[in-house]
Automatic annotation (TrEMBL):
The gene is helD. Residues 1-89 form the UvrD-like helicase ATP-binding domain. InterPro entries: P-loop_NTPase (IPR027417), UvrD-like_ATP-bd (IPR014016). The lineage of its organism: Bacteria, Pseudomonadati, Pseudomonadota, Gammaproteobacteria, Enterobacterales. GO terms for molecular function: ATP binding; helicase activity; hydrolase activity. Pfam families: UvrD-helicase (PF00580). Keywords: ATP-binding, Helicase, Hydrolase, Nucleotide-binding. It comes from the Bacteria. This is DNA helicase IV.
């Protein structure tokens, strides 16, 4: 459209489902067209832009919403802290990682293993995102789980609860 001069950059809207996909789209545009002033956005970024344009006061958005590195750092730091300080947490996480996810977990202070932490970070983000989207209390989430998986689900929620609390207070 731009090459044929059928549209201006401000008339083109590129939406992606996630930040990574938006980044890839932006890289392709720059590679093919140079810096033409088109920016792919996620649906959330578009919604924020619309709110900011239609309102005098911009909503307060946590840095964690937009900074993947800060998000990962917060989650892994608090996960490690929970495992180091509470034997029940460490035992629960070891069980979850080995039995359910079938990961090989090092003996001893497994939470200090960088490869394991890097691998776990994206899962923690996803699980935390699901808990935040649900919005209700932990008891409500547990109550809504299938009866046959409720006990296990309850254990997983208890393991994630300190991370959710850390997120909310960050």
């Amino acid at each position: 459209l731009l090459r044929r001069q059928e549209a201006e950059p401000g008339q083109i809207l590129l939406l992606a489902f996630g930040r990574q996909a938006a980044g890839e789209m932006n890289d392709r545009i720059k590679e093919r067209l140079g810096d033409v002033g088109i920016q792919a956005k996620t649906f959330h970024a578009l919604a924020l832009q619309i709110i900011q344009q239609g309102s005098r006061k911009a909503p307060a958005i946590s840095r964690l919403e937009t900074d993947a590195k800060a998000r990962k750092e917060l989650l892994i730091t608090h996960w490690r802290q929970q495992c180091a300080e509470k034997k029940a947490q460490a035992k629960g996480w070891r069980q979850w990682l080995t039995e359910e996810l079938e990961w090989e977990v090092p003996e001893g202070d497994f939470w200090q293993d960088k490869r394991l932490a890097d691998r776990l970070a994206s899962r923690l983000e996803r699980w935390l995102g699901l808990m935040r989207m649900h919005g209700g209390s932990q008891a409500e989430m547990i109550e809504q789980a299938d009866e046959e998986s409720r006990d296990l689900f309850s254990k997983r929620i208890r393991l994630m609860a300190p991370l959710l609390k850390a997120w909310k207070s960050a």
